[in-house]
Amino acid sequence: MRGPAAYPLPRMAGVLETCEISRILSITAHPDDVDFAAAGTVARWTDAGIEVVYCVVTDGDAGGFDEDFPREEMPALRRAEQVAAAKCVGVHDVRFLGYPDGRVEATLGLRRDLARVIRQVRPDRVLCPSPERSYARIGVGHPDHRAVGSAALDAVYPDARNPFAFPELRERESLAAWTVREVWIAGGPDPDHYVDVTETFPRKIAALRAHESQTGHMEDLTERLRTRLAGVARQAGLPDGRLAEGFRVLDTA
Ligand SMILES: [Zn+2]
Question: To the nearest whole number, what is the mean pLDDT of the chain?
Answer without folding.
Answer: 93
